[in-house]
Structures are given as structure tokens and as C-alpha cells.
């Protein structure tokens, strides 16, 4: 495939959230109006063959190509995953390894969290000039600056000002060669491991420390949370409670947008699920993280689910 005429994207997903991934990919397809081909690399975290077949049956193969990569194959041997006690799954760290598991001829990639839907042509984002910087992102709509809770509470230790902008890592345009040259992955992992008590959103904490004041700020409409009011978003990001749950409580029109795209996939008959499955998912994240950390890093760490 001609790399010059291809938009490369990476998503990371487990089986539970594959329904979100289906809606995201369909939203990218539907809103894509230029001639580039769409190539997705999907890091799969224990995804069933049935889910993968359903996703393959949902796409337009004339435009979109899916490449599945097992999560266990994404981490280079000389890296160890950070150890944290959060309820976030280990797969959140896979974005850090994109420059290593993608083919080395790929120079740029767009990383997307799966709990998103796009309403603008992805080619607009793809053509964004990074101005020599490693990453482009949107200032986090909630945390916004490093001194707010959830940001970098020990920002003074890094010589940062309290009003230093803080970006959301759900959408990233990445210059892969620059990332490797600057050894970003190793720096972020070291930062997280050295500041676990401050890393409330672990991967986001580390990236904001390492890339503080060295990232390109995108238009805020490229990453709007589901409570956003104002101009129509280019991208809706369902942080917090997802529209796949009955307990979703953010804007109903954004939920309708999600289901509009989902209706165009093999999950067209999907119905919102209850709280039991949501809590089981969080518990499973803890148990899975505990077991994988023992295996990958050969250590056991203690944590409390309700702390």
C-alpha cells in the first residue's frame, strides 16, 4: 500500500469495548471524503475471534484495512510495563510502544482512544503540520492545567509553572521518528514508576511531564468530552460513563450520534448494558493487571480496589 496515500491510525481495545471500536471506525469511514486509504492497527487485548470477524464484516474494504496486533507482541523485550494501582487496564500503556511495533517506514500515526466518534474528515487532522514537535494533542477539557487535580500535582518538582497546559492523551498525532530519537517511551515509563503516588491518570501523567511545553496544541473541537457545550465537535470523546451503559448521563444527542454510527455495523442490534457488567469490567481490570504484572515484571504489588 502506498504510504504517501494512506492515513495510519492505532487503537487499543479489549473485547468488552469492541462495540466502541466499531462505532469509531465507522465514523472515520463515513466522514472521510478525500482519496487516502484508511489503515488501522488494532492492538487486541484478549479479543475473541467472533468480535474480530464482526468488525471485519462492518468495514468498507475498498477504503479501510484492519491489522490486528496482539498486545503481548507490542512491548519490546527491554521495556517493562509501569506498575500502578489504578483500575485502568494495562492496555493504556500500549500507545507508548507504537513507534516500536509499527513498521519502521511509517513516519506518522494518529492514535485514538476507542471511546470516541469522529464527525470531521480524518484527513484534516492527518495533514496537520506538527511544526517540528513530537506530538500534537488537545488541552484536556477537564484538567486543563498541571496544577489541577488529576494533572501533575508535584509539578514544582519538574520546574513547571502552575498554569502549564495539560493535554489529553486520547487523541495524539505522533511523529514516530522524533519520538524514538527523543527516547520518549523510556522517559515516560521511568517518570511513572518514580511518581506512582502522583500519577492518577498514569500514562497521561508521564506524557505530560516528559512533553511539558513541547507539544502542539490542536483546536479544542478535536477532543470534546460528552458534556461539551458550544460549537459542534469534530470529535466526541466519551470519557467517564460510556453510552454503552444504561447509566450514561451525559448529552443525549452525543449518545444518539454514537448509535447512529453503530447502526452501520454488525452491532446494530446492541442494547445498553447494566451496572453489573461495568463493575465486573473494573474488577477484571484489576485482576488482569495483577496477573500480567506478575508475569511480565516478575513482581507482586498490593492494591486496594476501594481506596
Structural class, by secondary structure, is: alpha/beta
What oligomeric state is this?
single chain
Q: What is the strand content? A: 15-25%
Give the overall shape: globular
Largest sheet: 7 strands, mixed
Pfam families: Glyco_transf_8 (PF01501)
Keywords: Glycosyltransferase, Metal-binding, Transferase
Organism: Rufibacter tibetensis
InterPro entries: Glyco_trans_8, Glycosyltrans_8_dom-fam, Nucleotide-diphossugar_trans
Structure in words:
Pfam families: Glyco_transf_8 (PF01501). The protein is globular, with a radius of gyration of 19 Å. The strands form two sheets. It has a seven-stranded mixed sheet, sandwiched between helices. Strands 5-10-9 form a three-stranded mixed sheet. Mean pLDDT is 90; it is low at 296-307. The longest helix has 23 residues, at 275-297. The chain has one domain (3-297): Alpha-Beta Complex (Spore Coat Polysaccharide Biosynthesis Protein SpsA, Chain A). The chain contains nine helices and ten strands. 30% of the residues lie in helices and 18% in strands. It has helices at residues 18-31, 49-56, 98-101, 122-126, 176-181, 184-194, 202-210, 252-262, 275-297; strands at residues 6-14, 37-45, 64-70, 108-112, 116-118, 135-139, 167-175, 216-217, 224-225, 235-237. Helix 1 (18-31) links the parallel strand 1 (6-14) and strand 2. By secondary structure, it is of the alpha/beta class. Helix 1 (18-31) crosses helix 8 (252-262) and helix 6 (184-194) crosses helix 7.
Amino acid at each position: 500500500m502506498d504510504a504517501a496515500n494512506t492515513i495510519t491510525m492505532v487503537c487499543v481495545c479489549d473485547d468488552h469495548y469492541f462495540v466502541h471500536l466499531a462505532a469509531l471506525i465507522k465514523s472515520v469511514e463515513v466522514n472521510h471524503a478525500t482519496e487516502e486509504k484508511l489503515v488501522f492497527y488494532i492492538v487486541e487485548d484478549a479479543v475473541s475471534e467472533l468480535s474480530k470477524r464482526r468488525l471485519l464484516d462492518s468495514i468498507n474494504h475498498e477504503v479501510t484495512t484492519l491489522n490486528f496486533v496482539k498486545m503481548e507482541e507490542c512491548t519490546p523485550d527491554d521495556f517493562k510495563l509501569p506498575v500502578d494501582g489504578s483500575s485502568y487496564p494495562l492496555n493504556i500503556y500500549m500507545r507508548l510502544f507504537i513507534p516500536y511495533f509499527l513498521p519502521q517506514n511509517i513516519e506518522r500515526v494518529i492514535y485514538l482512544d476507542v471511546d470516541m466518534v469522529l464527525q470531521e474528515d480524518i484527513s484534516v487532522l492527518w495533514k496537520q503540520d506538527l511544526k517540528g514537535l513530537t506530538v500534537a494533542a488537545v488541552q484536556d477539557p477537564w484538567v486543563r492545567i498541571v496544577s489541577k487535580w488529576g494533572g501533575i500535582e508535584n509539578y514544582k518538582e519538574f520546574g513547571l509553572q502552575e498554569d502549564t497546559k495539560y493535554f489529553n492523551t486520547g487523541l495524539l498525532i505522533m511523529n514516530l521518528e522524533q519520538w524514538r530519537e527523543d527516547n520518549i517511551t523510556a522517559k515516560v515509563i521511568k517518570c511513572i514508576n518514580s511518581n506512582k503516588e502522583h500519577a492518577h491518570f498514569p500514562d497521561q501523567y508521564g506524557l505530560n511531564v516528559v512533553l511539558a511545553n513541547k507539544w502542539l496544541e490542536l483546536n479544542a473541537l478535536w477532543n470534546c468530552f460528552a458534556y461539551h457545550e458550544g460549537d459542534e465537535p469534530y470529535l466526541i470523546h466519551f470519557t467517564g460513563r460510556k453510552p454503552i451503559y444504561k447509566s450514561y448521563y451525559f448529552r443525549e444527542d452525543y449518545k444518539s450520534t454514537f448509535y447512529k454510527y453503530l447502526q452501520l455495523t454488525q452491532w446494530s442490534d446492541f442494547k445498553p448494558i447494566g451496572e453489573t457488567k461495568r463493575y465486573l469490567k473494573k474488577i477484571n481490570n484489576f485482576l488482569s493487571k495483577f496477573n500480567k504484572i506478575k508475569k511480565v515484571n516478575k513482581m507482586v504489588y498490593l492494591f486496594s480496589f476501594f481506596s
